[in-house]
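Colleagues,

For the teaching module next term, I've prepared a clean inverse folding example: a structure given as tokens, and then the sequence designed for it. I'd like students to try predicting residues themselves before seeing the answer, so please don't circulate the second half yet.
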């Protein structure tokens, strides 16, 4: 039985997961606020940018998840959404969120169990017949093995981390390809720890590096069918997954003081980037790893004007 994947709130948040916080911009592309609602309490449409498009979102944990931020932004621009969940605990969180955007819940999906992936896509096919986009926001690793040294990673945890955090994107792409008869867009979440060493990331960094390579190879395989494949590498954001990240407050503070924009990014900003990749705005873009991190990825060292920070010990 596979371990429960931690829904990636952020393209690689830390500890075997993805999720971080962001504080900022509630505005979506097109000028509409993603949080506006009509008289019936439903979220209002900001534009028709994604009207007529239907997408499956995999990996929502709660209303602070990056996957949910992307889903909300897509809905605000007219997209129809479907969601999976893993287990009863997440079902109780996902169903109310799906209802908020008039979404379809296609059921339990554990990416470590192929039969449940098949069942979820069968449900999508039954209800829609086809699919226009997919958001993959799933990752997992044994938290205890993210605190020590990478060299001490066990074979079992390495294998499981790669299966859940990397191969699962290929697995869902195989199913999505069959439903994207008119082309489509696949989007996953990664993190800067795939490119450079990051503390407390260990085997997740290796899995994310493999995931980013998968994006390029999937893009090459599926491009002839007009299916685009991209990834968002988001900065740290407070999500459920981030709650278990050691020294996470230090990471947030360091980014706030050192990134070119001198702040952390907001989930809404990642959501807007998701709309770009999942809509026709990016029709000529595939195989990209797109950073939404206030410019953190361009840094080579601490900014001279930033304060010296120390890690608070509990």
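(Answer key — instructors only)
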């Amino acid at each position: 039985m596979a371990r429960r994947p931690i829904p990636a709130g952020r393209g690689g948040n830390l500890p075997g997961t993805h999720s971080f916080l962001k504080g900022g911009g509630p505005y979506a592309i097109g000028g509409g606020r993603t949080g506006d609602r009509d008289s019936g309490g439903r979220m209002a449409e900001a534009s028709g940018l994604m009207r007529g498009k239907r997408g499956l979102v995999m990996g929502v944990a709660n209303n602070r998840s990056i996957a949910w931020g992307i889903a909300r932004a897509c809905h605000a621009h007219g997209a129809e959404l479907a969601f999976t969940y893993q287990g009863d605990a997440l079902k109780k969180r996902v169903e109310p969120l799906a209802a908020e955007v008039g979404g379809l819940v296609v059921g339990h999906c554990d990416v470590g169990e192929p039969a449940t992936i098949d069942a979820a896509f069968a449900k999508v096919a039954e209800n829609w017949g086809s699919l226009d986009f997919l958001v993959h926001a799933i990752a997992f690793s044994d938290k205890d093995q993210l605190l020590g040294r990478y060299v001490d990673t066990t074979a079992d945890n390495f294998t499981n981390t790669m299966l859940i955090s990397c191969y699962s994107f290929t697995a869902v792409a195989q199913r999505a390809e069959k439903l994207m008869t008119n082309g489509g867009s696949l989007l996953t979440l990664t993190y800067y720890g795939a490119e450079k060493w990051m503390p407390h990331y260990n085997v997740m960094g290796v899995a994310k590096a493999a995931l980013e390579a998968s994006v390029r190879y999937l893009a090459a395989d599926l491009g002839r069918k007009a299916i685009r494949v991209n990834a968002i590498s988001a900065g740290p954001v407070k999500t459920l997954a981030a709650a278990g990240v050691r020294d996470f407050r230090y990471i947030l503070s360091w980014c706030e003081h050192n990134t070119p924009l001198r702040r952390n990014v907001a989930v809404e900003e990642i959501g807007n980037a998701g709309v770009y990749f999942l809509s026709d705005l990016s029709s000529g873009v595939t195989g990209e790893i797109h950073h939404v991190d206030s410019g953190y990825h361009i840094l080579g060292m601490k900014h001279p004007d930033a304060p010296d920070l120390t890690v608070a010990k509990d």
